[in-house]
TrEMBL record:
The chain crosses the membrane at residues 49-73, 80-99, 105-122, 134-158, 178-201, 213-234, 246-265, 272-293, 299-320, 341-361, 367-397, 418-436. NCBIfam families: NDH_I_N, PRK05777.1-3. GO terms for molecular function: NADH dehydrogenase (quinone) (non-electrogenic) activity; NADH dehydrogenase (ubiquinone) activity; quinone binding. The gene is nuoN. GO terms for cellular component: endomembrane system; plasma membrane. GO terms for biological process: ATP synthesis coupled electron transport. This is NADH-quinone oxidoreductase subunit N. Its EC number is 7.1.1.-. Coiled coil: none annotated. PANTHER family: NADH DEHYDROGENASE (PTHR22773). Keywords: Cell membrane, Membrane, NAD, Quinone, Translocase, Transmembrane, Transmembrane helix, Transport, Ubiquinone. It is a multi-pass membrane protein.
């Protein structure tokens, strides 16, 4: 309402109001975190798992929105609706995380998805952004159809959409129809987290969408969708672990492999980060494949650290501007260590961390999921994870080589103050996480125990 009735441009004011709303929501989530409760006739659940993942989602949304505001000002995009769409998408994510019924699950997923389709095509005067929005909408609709069809099969064979009642029914009488429905649901969910083989939209949408939108897509929806993935499989479908574990195992391996090999020949930094995110989702799914408290703890630690690493990496990408024009080619980073040593140092931290080099945060995120896999006897999964990490290290280190050993090109413009603050804050967390890891690990452990009380 403020944006509509303000006669002059209200993009910045609405944006900061939206950031304040996200921070306030995080405060309310944190203060109401004691115990668990179901609301709205069992459609909505709040517990320790929801609190942990909601805080990560809200933090990711707020940070990417702050990064977006400087971009909107630089590009002179005077559309206050941008922040409103972020708010709607985040609301959908929070609903996904707390879904306790197939109906509320779909409601949250579509609320997030519909806002995301508009965001992808936000720069409608550019061909790339329009194409990105159209591709995302069409493929997203197909994935939603798969998910909805799977949900209808599950409902048809069990007679209920409630997670609690589903768990009770499936513990006694699992049927083949439910298995088929579950496979369709897993396919739809894999699309939402851009896991292989449902990843085909990711590089094109990431490249075509405006850069701050790409940053948002790469971080916040992934956290919420993985949280929904975990809640769905560790909750109502826990007794079908023998069926879905094989599917998630395959999705995890394909995602790690495609994420590692697909990025090798990329020349656009956003496409490289797209394949990187596909690989990271594969590592997170290793924790879910294990189907144990240690596995879920590892996945949650990975998600939390993934937020910091990727927000920082995209803060660097948004700082890639020459003479007022945004550039996206990896070759534009040539000689960055001499023209902008601080920016080069920060990106080096994030690249090494994503590659899993100790003692950076990315090393610990991979360590905990691989430890859980080894403890569960899934040695093959852990070995494949380590090998794909080695392959992915090639293209991360190639970026560092270009910054430090190639001849400089034109220097970048001075980055926005907000970008610089976020850049150094996320760099500090990524670099110094090893000094005090207990707080995050203990919180993740507590959240995982909610789903595995035994």
């Amino acid at each position: 309402m403020f944006g509509v009735f303000r006669k002059s441009d209200a993009t910045a004011q609405v944006g900061w109001l939206a950031v304040a709303a996200l921070v306030a929501a995080a405060g309310l989530v944190l203060t109401g975190s004691k115990g668990s409760a179901t609301l709205f006739n069992g459609l909505f659940v709040t517990d320790g798992f929801a609190v942990f993942t909601k805080l990560a989602t809200l933090g990711a949304s707020a940070l990417t929105l702050i990064l977006s505001l400087s971009w909107l000002a630089q590009e002179q995009v005077k559309k206050f609706e941008y922040a409103i769409l972020i708010i709607f998408a985040t609301l959908g994510m929070l609903m996904m995380i707390s879904a306790n019924n197939l109906m509320s699950l779909y409601l949250g997923l579509e609320l997030q998805g519909l806002a995301a389709y508009v965001l992808a095509a936000f720069k409608r005067d550019t061909l790339k952004s329009t194409e990105s929005g159209l591709k995302y909408f069409i493929l997203g609709s197909v994935a939603s159809g798969l998910l909805l069809y799977g949900m209808s099969l599950v409902y048809g064979f069990t007679g209920t959409t409630s997670f609690d009642k589903l768990a009770e029914v499936l513990s006694h009488h699992p049927s083949t129809g439910v298995m088929v429905g579950l496979v369709f649901m897993l396919s739809g969910m894999a699309f939402k987290v851009s896991a292989a083989p449902f990843h085909m939209w990711t590089p094109d949408v990431y490249e075509g969408a405006p850069t701050p939108v790409t940053a948002f897509f790469a971080i916040a929806p992934k956290v919420a969708a993985i949280a929904l993935f975990i809640r769905l499989l560790a909750g109502p479908f826990a007794d079908l672990v023998g069926a879905w574990q094989q599917v998630v195992w395959l999705i995890s391996i394909l995602s790690m492999a495609i994420g590692a090999f697909g990025a090798i020949n990329q020349t656009n930094i956003k496409r490289l980060l797209a394949y990187s995110s596909i690989g990271h989702m594969g590592y997170v799914l290793v924790g879910l494949t294990v189907a144990s408290p240690e596995g879920v703890r590892g996945a949650l630690v990975y998600l939390a650290l993934y937020v910091f690493m990727n927000v920082g990496a995209f803060a660097v990408v948004l700082s890639m501007r020459q003479k007022g024009r945004a550039v996206e080619s990896i070759s534009d980073l040539s000689g960055l260590s001499r023209t902008s040593p601080g920016l080069a140092a920060a990106l080096t931290i994030f690249m090494f961390s994503m590659a899993g080099i100790p003692p950076l945060a990315g090393f610990f995120s991979k360590l905990y999921v691989f430890m859980a896999a080894v403890k569960a006897g899934m040695f093959g999964l852990a070995i494949i994870g380590v090998l794909t990490s080695v392959v992915s290290a090639f293209y991360y280190i190639r970026v560092i080589k270009i910054m430090y050993f190639d001849e400089p090109v034109d220097s970048f413009d001075r980055p926005a103050t907000a970008n610089t603050v976020i850049l150094w804050g996320t760099s500090a967390v990524t670099l110094l996480f090893w000094l005090w890891p207990a707080a995050l690990i203990n919180s993740a452990q507590t959240a995982a125990q909610v789903l595995f009380p035994g």
